[in-house]
Sequence to fold (272 residues):
Amino acid sequence: MPKIAVLQMTSGIDPEANYRALEEAAERAGEVGAKVLFTPEMAMLLDRDRKRARPWIESEKPSDYTTLLASLANLMGVDLAMGSMPESADSGRWATRSMYLPARWDQFDTYDKMHMFDVHLGNGERWRESAAYEAGQDVVCLEDTPLGRLGLTICYDLRFPALFEELGRRCCDAIAVPAAFTKPTGAAHWHVLLRARAIEAQAFVIAAAQVGKHEDGRETYGHSLVVDPWGEVLLDMGGEEPGLGFCDLDLERIAEVRSQVPSLANKRDIPN
Fold:
């Protein structure tokens, strides 16, 4: 029954300060024997001022910190599921990129956020990720992690069930959903969507989240969750403070749920 650690953060505009929070969490996770540490979206840099963020994103700093994070995972003996970090994409635009950095070897896997958050919320907030970020193209399911097969998604991807259907088809045992949900959308939809995706994919869903008021002026919902394949919430870290939570995952629960309700096996293609 592997133990995981979930880091709820209030990331800011200083990557060094954010890294120190990650470093402290990895050390604590290693001390208690956690196999994987999950972090939120934009864990290394959360800054909606793109002019201010551009010099860092387009420098060598993201690669430098990736090296530091890989060394940290190795030193602490815990796999690091980095929710996301902004990086320059091959096209010259930016990517919101998750990384999975194993503790025991040098290679790591990445996933680029597929769905861009382009919205005008009722409270007046406007977000247009596609103005700076390039959408990813590839579904990513990692074959061999301490949790079995791990699917990678990021935040707004949560609203697109076809992605989770594909991860379910690939028999993912767990799916990471790192996020920086706004307060209005989080209060309305966060819990119900995460539970629904866990039920649909019949997999654990692990959602490390940003929380509170950030230096760039935004406010995020928090409530980092771990949900089991039956839709039961195993961990809810609340919406007030950053912190580190732990959860033991009973991986035998996956086969039990899939035998009770074999919806993945019974699925049929819908004719056009």
